[in-house]
Automatic annotation (TrEMBL):
Record flagged with keyword Transport: no
Organism in which the protein naturally occurs: Streptomyces viridiviolaceus
Taxonomic lineage of the native organism: Bacteria, Bacillati, Actinomycetota, Actinomycetes, Kitasatosporales
Tagged with keyword Cytoplasm: no
Domain Reductase C-terminal: 315-398
Entry cofactors: FAD
Keywords: FAD, Flavoprotein, Oxidoreductase
Protein name: NAD(P)/FAD-dependent oxidoreductase
InterPro entries: FAD-oxidoreductase/Apoptosis, FAD/NAD-bd_sf, FAD/NAD-binding_dom, FAD/NAD-linked_Rdtase_dimer_sf, Reductase_C
PANTHER family: APOPTOSIS-INDUCING FACTOR 1 (PTHR43557), RIESKE DOMAIN-CONTAINING PROTEIN-RELATED (PTHR43557:SF2)
Matching Pfam families: Pyr_redox_2, Reductase_C
Domain FAD/NAD(P)-binding: from-to ranges: 3-291
Amino acid sequence: PERVVVVGAGMAGVQTAVALREQGFTGTVTLIGAEPHQPYDRPPLSKAVLLGTAEGSAFDVDFEALGIELRLGCEALGVRPGEHLLDTSAGPVPYDALVLATGAEPIRLPGAEGVPGVHLLRTLDDAERLRPVLARQHDIVVVGAGWIGAEFATAAREAGCAVTVVEAADRPLAGALPAEVAAPMTAWYADAGAVLRTHARVERVEPGEPGAVILDDGSRLPAGAVVVGIGARPATAWLAGSGIELGAYGEVLADERLRTSAPDVYAVGDCASFPSGRYGERLLVHHWDNALQGPRTVATNIVGDAPATYDPVPYFWSEQFGRFVQYAGHHTSADTTLWRGDPSGPAWTVCWLRDDRLVALLAVGRPRDLAQGRRLIEAGTVMDPRLLTDPARPLKAA
Ligand code: FAD
């Protein structure tokens, strides 16, 4: 191909453009992004950027030196695969290869849209709007005890706000972790001085100074601000009518080489799912490492002669309530759970085994377990479950 066009100037889009150059691609690379800002990294938005200990999180990439043409403030509106054309707010853009990297957008709280004082946390603009909210130290209600909710609650407590987290499920991270693993995390909220209310559904948000969150049991929580962290879904509505196949969550259905159902169109990062050979199911991963690794496969498949297959061991981290939480792999409820260490203590690990092989682990304050475990997962090593549970022993093969 001569002309590669990448849509979405987040982590996955930027990494794709960079990887193309790293792999020797000499044609034109155009990176199109809807946001007006210089491309930036998202994880600091719920951490240092929110607390004001970092000004911004722009990627340290010299686009000009790499010959990457940046078109910011430009929104993709549709694709015409038959004509190899991308339609944008600035007109049609022809491509030889197109990479979809439009990421995800936060799910909005029904009925709270446009209510003053209700915030999301996905973009730099969101984080900048939230900084003065933290500085005012009001009562803050966080809706959703997921990864973003926990990280935001951590920052808000650090800033001295009174924080109540309301969660519809019976525990934090209900979508991601089984009850026994999430159980010790419940205590983290109280330790940090945040109130966690489970089985709590928001009925409505009342605007005002302060406003209030009304729960379905009738309770009324005063709220100087409301922060909604109830999940994200692929930002793919703009692909409707393109013929590009989407899945149940609106994600682009990529194949094992990250190709879409349209010729010469690839998809990577938060907007796409792929079939995992390793885990035998399709994975939709909304984490940073996937937006780093996937682009290398895409670039290889655009540039190289030999096709590359994407089959990662997924990885992510979260920093919440003074703890460093890391997860590698992928587990299902059918896998066996084994503990290393005391979950009420500051550091512990949970391992998931399938046929005595490590398929996933979650490490709290045990980065060495994570590093060793990740390699064992990659290698598919057979483990001795009895040795595994001794936290004093390094994680290694039987
Ligand atoms: P995005 O980062 O969403 O980038 C997509 C870009 O495409 C956006 O800039 C968007 O504006 C643009 N776009 C969308 N539609 C269009 C269109 N039609 N036309 C043009 N441009 C468009 N992961 C971790 O592993 N650890 C963490 O600690 C962590 N912390 C996080 C904290 C926050 C606050 C957030 C929001 C996410 C965090 N993540 C974390 C997740 C991680 O940031 C994402 O997985 C990663 O950003 C995905 O990159 P992406 O490029 O696929 O998508």
